[in-house]
Amino acid sequence: RLEFLAHNDVRTGLSNRTWFGDQVELAVEEARESGECLAVLLLNLDRFKDVNDSYGHTIGDDVLKHIARQVQSALRPGDVLGRTGGDELAVVARNLRHADGAAAVARHLIRAVAEPWRSPDGLEVVAGVSVGICMFPEHAGTTELLLQGAHAAVYGAKARGRGAWCFFHEAMTQAARERLELE
């Protein structure tokens, strides 16, 4: 049980942030050796706080578990999924030929998350997700920078509206640095 809890998220059973980071690191090392292209996709649930506020955390947890199952079932062989935060899941999409492949994965995951969750008594909740995408080696060359880039890109996706995806570009982190300097 302790071994499981050290590596997995209690709510969803997915890899936790630490274990997921280790999986990203392994994927980056293998990609560096093989010349493989991969992407880290950060899935941030849209308005998930509203689910918790409207129906309570028990329903919110059930919806989150449903979303985790939906995303898990939508993954391609070799892809890795983890929960990196309260309303965030992350995927390492491996064996990509180019950025279009990562965009296709993002669209597929957005559709998977949109499948409604239904309670035994008929309550239906439809969740949405915004996806930030950071590519190796195109956008970042390390695990830390891939995760940071995907996180920055998710805000670009949210700015486009719910249910959107966005690729990382350096101007995103530059704008964040400028805001911090200004503050």
In short:
With about 180 residues, this protein is of the alpha+beta class.
Description:
The protein is α+β, with helices and mostly antiparallel strands and 183 residues long. The protein has 7 helices and 7 strands. The chain has helices at 2-7, 17-34, 48-55, 57-74, 99-113, 143-159, 170-182, and strands spanning 37-46, 80-85, 88-96, 117-118, 124-125, 128-136, 165-167. The strands form 2 sheets. Strands 2-3-1-6-7 form a 5-stranded mixed sheet, with helices on both faces. Strands 4-5 form a two-stranded antiparallel ribbon. The longest helix is centred in the N-terminal third of the chain and has 18 residues, at 17-34.
Instruction: Please identify the oligomeric state.
Output: single chain
Give the DSSP E fraction (strand runs of 2 or more residues).
15-25%
Percent helix range: 40-55%
- Give the overall silhouette: globular
Rg from Cα: 16 Å
Task: Kindly report how far apart the N and C termini lie.
Answer: 45 Å
Largest sheet: 5 strands, mixed
Mean pLDDT score = 92
Sequence stretches where pLDDT stays below 50 over 5 or more residues: none
Compressed to H and E, one letter per element, the order equals HHEHHEEHEEEHEH
Number of DSSP E strands: 7
Give the count of helical stretches. 7
- Computed structural class: alpha+beta
Strands across the major sheet, in which order?
Answer: 2-3-1-6-7
